[in-house]
Each structure stands twice: as structure tokens, then as C-alpha cells.
Amino acid sequence: MKHIISLSFFLLLIMSCSSDDNNLACSVGNPIENLNWLKSEIDLLKNNEEEYNYVTQTKHNDQTVFVFANCNPLINSVFLVKNCEGNNIGIIGMGEQDIPSTILDNGIIIWKAENSECDF
Predict the structure, then answer these.
(1) What is residue 24's predicted lDDT score, i.e. its pLDDT?
(2) Domain residue spans in the chain?
């Protein structure tokens, strides 16, 4: 009986650890602070002082991605999509081979301009 309880506890511990990993973006707790390339990109956006910029974290093909977007109503924008390493993996908004905009449906905004004009 002790073996069953010990085994059950061990399996529960392993399952809880692996589910925590699934909640981490790019295997880090805070991507803005822990991914140097992302922090640098956001710092550039901050320095630009553009009130329409924002960054969304979402999933594409079961991997975490970051979408660099804007909500400027006067332009037809394309949004860059980058993976955890900071590599461009596609765009949203140009043509049929793009990444579908539906990936934004389950995304979360992880950064937006301080003086944001975006209405989310």
C-alpha cells in the first residue's frame, strides 16, 4: 500500500511540474524581462512613442509566438510574427501564405504604448 501511495504522489508531482511548464511562454516566466530580444524590441517601440503599437503573445502551430502590431485606423498594416528566438516566422495581413489573423483570437496583449490609442 505504501508503494501505491508513494507512486501516486510521485506521478502527481511529475504531472504538476509538466503542466506548469505548459503555462510558461518560451520556457520563461516573464518573456518581456527574460527574452533579451523581446525586451530590446519593446524598448525600441517605447522610444518611438507611437501610440498605436502593441505586442500580443499567442500560439501558432503549438508554439508561443509574438505578434508586433498596431491599431492605427488610417493605415492597412501587416503584423510581424516572431518565435521565441526572435526569428520572423511570417506576417499577418498580406496574402494567402501569411499566418492567419485568427491566431490573435486567443492571444493576450503583453505590451502596449503608454499613451495607447488602441481600444481593446
Answers:
(1) 73
(2) 27-112
DSSP code for 115:
T
Residue 78: CB atoms within 10 A of its CB come to: 16
Residue 83: pLDDT above 50? Answer: yes
**Contact indicator for 81, 88 with CB cutoff of 8 Å:** yes
Which residues partner with 80 through β-bridges?
A: 68, 91
| CB proximity list for 50: less than 8 A, separation 6 or greater | 70, 113
CA dist., res. 67 & res. 109, Å (int): 9
Torsion over CA: 89, 94, 97, 103 (sign): positive
Residue 96's identity, in one-letter code, is E
Q: Quickly tell me which residue has 486567443 as its cell.
A: 106
The average confidence (pLDDT) of the chain is 82
Q: Considering the entire predicted model, what is its pTM?
A: 0.76
Q: Identify any residues that bridge with 57 across adjacent strands, giving them in sequence order.
A: 66, 108
